[in-house]
Amino acid sequence: MSALLQVEGLAKSYGGVHAVRGVSFALDAGTILALIGPNGAGKSTCFNMLNGQIRPNAGSIKLEGQEIVGLPPRAVWRRGVGRTFQITATFPSMTVRENVQVALLSFHHKLWAMVGYAGAAHRPEADRLLALVGMEAQAERPCGELAYGDLKRLELAIALANNPKLLLMDEPTAGMAPKERVDLMRLTAKIAREKGIGVLFTEHDMDVVFEHADAVMVLNRGELIATGTPEQVRRDPQVRAIYLGEGLLYDAKHREGSAA
Amino acid sequence: MEFLLVQALSGLASAASLFLVASGLSIIFGVMRIVNFAHGAFYMLGAYVAFTLTDRFAGPLGFWGGILVACLVVAAVGALMEMLLLRRIYHAPELFQLLATFGVTLMVEDIVVLIWGAEDLMGPRAPGFTGAVTVFGRLVPSYDFLLIALGPIVLGLLWLLFHGTRWGVLVRAATQDRDMVASLGVNQKWLFTSVFALGVFLAALGGALQIPRTTVSHAMDLSIIVEVFVVVVIGGLGSVTGAFVAAILVSELNAFGILVLPKISMVMVFLVMAVVLVVRPWGLFGKPEGTPRAAAGLSIRPWRPMSALERMGVAVAILVAASLPVFAGNYALSVGTEILVFVLFAASLHFLMTVGGLASFGHAAYFGLGAYGAAFMVKFLGAPMELALLVGPLLGLAGAVLFGWFCVRLSGVYFAMLTLAFAQIAWSVAFQWVEVTGGDNGMLGIWPSKWASSPQGFFWLTLAIVVIGVGVLRMLVFSPFGYGLRAARDSTLRSEAIGIDRKSTQWAAFIVAGTFAGIAGALFAFLKGSVFPENLAIPTSVDGLVMVLLGGIETVSGAVIGAIVYKALAIWLMSKTELSKLVLGGVIVVLVVAFPKGIVGFLEDLRHRRRRPPAPDGAGPEAAGYVAKVEAAE
Amino acid sequence: MKTMIGVALAATLLVTGMAKAQQGEIKVGEINSYSALPAFTDPYRKGMDLALKQINDAGGIKGKKLVIISKDDGGKPGDALTAANELVSRDGVVMIAGGFLSNVGLALADFAKQKKVPYIAAEPLTDAIVWSKGNDYTFRLRTSNYMQAAMLAEEAAKLPAKKWATIAPNYEFGQSFVAVFKELLTKKRPDVEFVAEQWPPLGKIDAGPVLQAIDAAKPDAILNATFAGDLVKLVREGNTRGVFKDRAVVSYLTGEPEYLDPLKTETPEGWIVSGYPWYGINTPEHKAFLDAYQQLNKDYPRLGSIVGYSTVMSIAAVLKATDDHNPDGIVKAMKGLKVDTPFGPIVYRAADHQSTLGAYIGKTSVKDGKGVMVDYVFRAGADYLPSEADAAKLRPKD
Predict the structure, then answer these.
(1) Which of A158, B415, C135, C388 could join B410 in a cystine, given CB atoms 3.0 to 4.6 angstroms apart?
(2) % of chain C at pLDDT higher than 90
């Protein structure tokens, strides 16, 4: 059986500077893969290539065996890739439910319909998705006045609207309170495992990474320097060298202890 | 060959005048993000004040001193306007500053006539620069050489100012990131005031330096403002060097263009702009990564379809309107019909601006195309009114299909300027293709069919079409298509990530808006019995913008109210006073300051506040900050 | 909020305010570009006011007071039509008059035809208004494009010049004037050729390059039809560049004080122009007009003053000529109507509704620091119009 996502030799450079070089990895359905690395390592570039926002200079990205390099984000999404952004991107002029309804309408190919009230479309489905992320009570609220943590959860609901096979989450917990982070990632992990969704996420919070990831990749200066289980990566001397300066590993261990 | 060199020199002199004015506009826009429509008015004021001073004080000192003092005086007036007016509305949607400065422009046009009289004034020649220099056996005015030298000198001085002084560094920093400068503890208010004053100074200088070449008149502002905008956009917003290059490009193309095509002047700048924007969407020297501002229509309070009560209210209003012919006279009915036509026109623009987030500066093009379409049907095919009303708007649709395809590739001010360019190109075709369109003399005899020829009949017909039209547009707002369109407006990133094709969606919205504008235009043709190029000229586009903004850009159907208020006011003032521009401009300025969200937006705020007393605006700052973050990410 | 109440009030007034015509008054509507072109319409209005005063002081129209209701059109045909509608449907005027711009005049003419309202086009110059788009209800006072082109072409034909260049504003006014001039001059002088043409946009002439382009074609003579600010730019730039040196220039309208006065000391010498030398016309009718005008206004008249004055005199004449003040009665009386103007008696020709108002043709010069016309002669309008039979053929059949 081929992997859900198969990436080979992905590369991108800007004006001669390599942002990403020779990145290859695979992701199976139902597994959660973390992509970590220091700031400027190329994580976001990597992500943006995966969902079609940036076109790579070289390499191949196969989703269920089919090449998706060169497709625009909307076409990648049609093939079953959901995505959340480092800084949330939602529709502030709509209510929480309408945000999800738009995604559902798009998924059901109904966005070109010029008659009918969109606010009444796919309501049960939208409410079910909102319930999934614990936002059902806020369905009627204007999205523009939500707290940041709620926006992150709303984004997850939107990203799930197309029954994705693959979920790309760029720093899903950035800007959230520690308690919220743990809750959100547990929720994500639960959904992913229940529905067999493959999840690729980047993260700075090592608690989140080591608690939920099935595997971890470490990116540095655009290159993958380590891949493996969280335990393997944590012991990798090269990774330790990179992260020593930031003190993150120590911090992570420390906090892991206190969380337990 | 020698002749061509002399022609190039003449072109350079024209470029210098254009550059001086354009550089000021570019600086103001680059730093403050204000589309300063009043820039032409300051150019004109510069010329008038310089005329008065140089007329009174003769001699070289009197002349050059007079010009300098005139620029300083006008710059002070500009600073005053910034402090009294613009400061109050920085937080209003971006286009409100355009509306406010447009109001000021209208006022200034009447004020200069009141102060300086109606007749053209001819100022003195510049002492020391009255003669000519022989170049290759041809005489070139020495004043031209002065202007040619002044262009690079001003460019250089501006460069020094921006790169060699602390003030300049701060201004450049503010261009990149306003919040950052604010956090440096710089008084941003005064920074803005000084930038605005500098920009106005340059505009006044451009005007003052014209007095040895032409007469000073109250129409000077119009003769330059659009061209200056075009130059700024071609050069790239905020780029002074870009403005310089663009001014030379436009002037030289014109100087040589007229040798081949003597009638090209009228449309040259717009052709250049259209080509540049299609090839380089950010202008020659512009940068795409500017901080984008909130798209028009980004409301924090989600829209809802009307409640049963509101529906009843609207039904009653329509019934009242429909009963108007029973008790109103013919004139009132024809005014009512005209207002209704503009309700539909404004509603179509509102759909594009508010729902689509695309502020068009050239929406009159589709209105006018619809009008001409109807006129062609009547004149060339002998079609009756019914058929012409059906087919005519298709010309508006066709125009929107063609122009829209290019326009939706851009956004923000660049989008606005490309729509303007296409509208001007359409206008000049209507103006110049005399054999088909009758040129500026228009097409006459486009009168309604017998059954609709009475004022009552045509009023009812118009009312029916407009009610249906506005209803359909409102239905579209709440349809899945409308939601997709709003999604593309709210967040390009997210909408693309959920499968929405932004360009196609916005293109469709452009076509919808163009078609409804075309319907309004076709009705207008039959109301007036004639069509003229003015139907697709800039003033008509600006009227539409004013109506939308007055109604409230964040509302679903505010344009309807905006159109009624503005058109009724304009017609009434026109009939009652010859100073209608002064009064109308004043009213616009007051409305902008008093109701920065427009009339309907203001009423909705009021209602909202009453319904939810515990500080609903508490979410405001937080939400606004959030919006800013979203944009930073894009 | 106050504004909205104001608007509401205004709307109510519009609806209920059908002003009833008072006994002993005859109302006439008048429309012009007062706010857009004040420099031209102010003297025009002063002329109108003078005529109105004289008529009413002399007992009005058979004892009834003549009332003229003026409206502004803002320089836009659409707004002119709104104003015409108000005058006709609300104020109940018996006829309308006015208009400066040709397109406004044509729009009003078409309105007159549709609503069957007599209309005297005061200032518009376009030939179309009485010929190709003429109609039963429209009459035109001013010396037309064609007539002035014919007068100037006559002078041009006397010149030795063979190679001509033209500069005219790029709209119907300029285009049709140049076309007629070319046609009439070529008829008289088959040996002339037109070697260059420039069509700057109205109000936006880039005079340097335009003149260079003209100069490069080395014409013997230049025909100019630009005016106002464009003319000043052209003259200043052309004087400095020596483009007009040793060349004959025929310049349309330049002798009218409206356009000549701003040029002051820079007025070119010896241009052949049409215009209005108010300072030197010694006919008794003009002297009477001039004295009365200057007494009332402390200002000298412009050509617009003549037009405004003669328009009101035409209105008074037709209303006196017939007691049937219904549209058809007025139209009937207008045909062949004789009116006395400061330029002498004129006739509204029955066949094409064009008046026979003439014009002065002369040369420009500078006197006491001011631009003036010298060596001028009066050309009677009737001599420069096609015969009534020929003119009638130029009008649409219906």
Answers:
(1) B415
(2) 82
Shared-domain flag, residues A151 and A140? yes
Crossing angle (nearest 10°) for helices B188-208 and B39-56:
60
Whether B297 and B553 have beta carbons less than 8 Å apart is answered as yes
- The residue behind tokens 């930038």 is B195
Structure-token match 């009627």, residue found? A140
Give per-residue pLDDT as tens, A57-93: 999 999 998 999 989 999 999 999 999 988 888 998 8
Using alpha carbons, select from B150, B247, B132, B533 the residue that is nearest to residue C206: B247
In chain A, what percentage of residues exceed pLDDT 70?
Answer: 93
Query: With contacts defined as CB-CB under 8 Å, which chain A residues touch B479?
Result: 113-118
Q: Is B375 helix (H, G, I), strand (E, B) or coil?
A: helix
The reply to whether A154 and A183 lie within a common domain is no
- Residues C272 and C294 reside in one and the same domain: no
Asked if the model's pLDDT at residue B619 lies above 50, the reply is no
**Which of A119, A144, A163 is a domain's end point?**
A163
Asked whether the beta carbons of residue B480 and residue A118 sit closer than 8 angstroms, the reply is yes
By the 8 A CB rule, do A102 and A94 touch? yes
Interface mutation vs chain C, best among B48, B213, B267, B530, most C CBs within 10 Å: B530
Q: How confident is the model at residue B457 (pLDDT cuts 50, 70, 90)?
A: very high
Inter-chain touch B330–C229, beta carbons under 8 Å: no
CA distances in angstroms from B48 to B43, B56, B64, B217, listed in the order given: 9, 12, 15, 8
**Residue B208 in contact with residue B217, Cβ under 8 Å?**
no
pLDDT on residue B576: 85
- pLDDT tens per residue across span B106-133: 999 999 999 998 888 888 888 888 888 8
Tokens 């470490």, located at residue: A218
C-alpha span between B123 and C236 (Å, rounded): 11
Q: Which of B300, B497, B505 sits opposite A51 (nearest CB)?
A: B497
What phi-psi label fits residue B120: left (phi over 0), alpha (psi between -120 and 50 degrees) or beta?
beta
Contact B119 C242 (CB under 8 A): no
Domain of residue A116 covers 91-163
> What three-state secondary structure class fits B341?
helix
Structurally, how many domains does chain C consist of?
A: 2
* A173 and A238 within one domain: yes
Residues in chain A within 8 Å Cβ distance of B304: 119
B143 neighbourhood in chain C, CB within 8 Å: 240
Instruction: Closest CB to B630: pick one of A89, A119, A121.
Output: A89
Residues 6+ apart with CB under 8 A from C387: none
DSSP string, B580-610: HHHHHHHHHHHHHHH-TTHHHHHHHHHHHHH
Same domain, A254 and A176: yes
For the domain that residue A35 is a member of, what is the CATH number? 3.40.50.300
Does residue C312 share a domain with residue C207?
no
**CATH number of the domain bearing residue C101:** 3.40.50.2300
Nearest to C32 by CA among C138, C92, C104, C89: C104
Which of C35, C125, C266 to mutate: most B Cβ within 10 Å?
A: C35
pLDDT digits (tens, 9 = 90+) for B558-591: 899 999 999 999 999 888 888 888 998 998 898 8
Q: Let me know how long chain C is.
A: 398
Tell which B residues from 264 to 323 touch A, by Cβ distance under 8 Å: 297-305
Flag whether A86 is in a domain: no
Residue B190: alpha-carbon gap to chain centroid: 27
Domain B329-629 maps to which CATH number in 1.10.10, 1.10.287, 1.10.3470, 3.30.300? 1.10.3470
